[in-house]
Each structure stands twice: as C-alpha cells, then as structure tokens.
Structure prediction request, 394 residues.
Amino acid sequence: MRKLIYILLFAFTMSGFAGTPKDVLESMRKAKISIPSVYFKCIRMMKPKNRIEYYADTIYVNVKKDNSIPLLSSKVRIQYENGNFSTFDGNSFKTLLVNENKLLIVDSTQNPSRFITGTWLKDAVTILMGGDTASIDYDSPKFEFDNETENVMFDQTECIYVAFNYKDLEIQPAAGFPQIKKIRSDLLIAKKDKLVRRVHNEILFDDSTTQIDNYFYLDVRPNLPLEDNMFDIQPLDGTVTEMYKPQEPVKPLEVGTEAPAFTLADETSKEVKLSDYKGKVVLVDFWGTWCKWCIKSMPAINKIAETFKDKDLAVIGISCLEPTNADPVQFMKKHNYTYKCLAHGEEVAAKYNVTGYPTMYIIGKDGKIAKTVVGFTESIGKDIEQIINDLLKK
Prediction:
C-alpha cells in the first residue's frame, strides 16, 4: 500500500498550461454532466481530525447515470477487494457475501438508497460524475485560486493541476466538531477526457485541527456500454437469501416513564444527582457548544431559569459530544447563563434516547417524564414556560 501511495502522489511538472483555473474547472463540470456511464476504481485515504495515521478504503464501481438523478446514479455495481460485491438497480440494494454464500437484500420498503447516499461511495460517484463545480462562487471574497494551472502526470495519465481555497468560513459541521474555518482543495483533471483523477481536501477547524480526504481514481473508463443486468444479482443454487431487517428507530422516552437516574460533576467537581431535585420540576437540556440550534435556544432556557428561580424548578444543561478544546462552563459564563451546567453527558444522553440536539426533557415532581421537546423553534421559550406553569400547579 505504501508503494502504491508513493506512485499515486508522484507528480512530474511539465511545461505548458491549459487555460485559466476557472476554464479547467468548467470544462471538467461539462464533461461530468455529459457522461452517461463510467467504470472506475477509487481509493479513499482519510485522516480524521485528531488522528495521526490515514486509513484507506477501495471500491471498484460500474455506474450508470439516470437522467432524473444527475448527481447520483440510480444504478451502481460495487466490487470489493475481498471478493464480495453489491448492486443497486434503483429499487433494491443487494450484497453477495461470497465466502458465506449469502445474498443480503434491502428492498424498496426499507429505503435502500441510503446504502448509497449514506456512504463515501456517494461522494466518490458525485465527484466523478456530478456537476459539483457549478456551485463554486468564483466572485465570492471567501474564494480564491491557489495558483496557476500546471501539467502533471498521475497514474500514467497526463493531467492538469488546479487548487483553490474557501477561507474565513463559519460552517457548522457534524456533532462533536468545531466550526470549519477553511477548506483547501486541489484536483488533478485528465487532459484527455476532462474527468477528475485525484481530489485532495484539507478542512481546517477553528481549533487548528485538520481533516484530510484523498480520492484517487484509477482505471477510469467512461461511456462503457453497460447492460442493466450488471446492476442486479441473481442468487445461484445453494445461495442463502436473507432480507435485511432494520433496527427500530430510537424514540424519545414516553410521557409517564420514570426519568432515568444520573450523576454528573458540575463546574466545581461536585457530584450532581437527579435525585437531588426530588419533589421539584426539572428541565434537562441536552446540548453542545458545537450545536447552533442549541445555542439559539439557550437564551430562552436561561430566561425560564430566571423567571422561576424562586419556584420549585431546577434547570440543568447537560453538554455532550464536545470537541477536546471546548469548555461548556466558560461558554455559559461568557453569555451570562446562570442555570446548572454538567459536562460529559454522553452516557446520560443514551439513557434518555437522545439522537438529536437540542433535546429537552421536562420531568414532573413525581420524577416521571412530563414532556419532551426536540429541536429549536422560535416559540420554544413560551411553549416550555406554559408546560412548567401547569406542572408547578399540581
């Protein structure tokens, strides 16, 4: 693998240029939009933030574009290095496990497309076949090209090198990540067919950590005459066919359920237990400094805490999935929020079936769940205040 990486990353600079960087990106976009089908091998090497080593995945893909879905083919054939392969014909996703002689089928009732859209395969296909450069705002003050184009060699293919940056960004990423401040991308685009052969992305977060993604496209063969039966697996004699059975979605705890007990440390390292508030109404807010909707809801929560500070109400914020450099206690102090802050609440969130943020549980004086509020709305403060008023009267 190391030898292959060195070969892939080798670039020999040649004389001559091929238009402006914008011209090159636009020619690539037009080529991708017009391509009906392609075979390719893709190696993805990724180094997540806070990790030193890369890890690599490989897929071999025959993909046929459906005109109704320009950015993602409705038909895919995937050949894995271990001999297994999968197909998606637009209706069902099938995987043949060769060593186990088993065929797994995800039918149309189980939304099989998520096995395409929810993996890096979607990104690999979109990069090669989608018109993604159409979204580039060349005139944005946050966009800039790195340098002029260069002619380079990659995997015995003559390519054009283009690099660009998006700087001074404030993008809210996935849970547990700080904000994205800069994205740098460089591409190698084949001169012959104008299709991308390598993509290198560096994502810089505001905590100075970086995530790196590399996509290497090998043996790219566009416009192959593909047959529809390439995108369906028929079981052989003796093959065990098994239908996929998805797990039931996690739902919030039902009203009337006994609120799970928990113990967490506060900002003074003092243990705080839910049982400490027995006989009171308790508002528990699962949040994170990384979550913009959590942050939008916090002024309303703090107002509730101040409004009912002399009543039998306890307001507790439990932060979860925080980046290593985050300090939720200092965050609350900075914004003058006065209600209790508990950190490292992932295990507690799991007990409360929290799958999205913010999630708020209102617990009655009897210790049972009285109401669950998931997500942010402009009326969240008034809605919760009315619920608390009703519970305090009981």
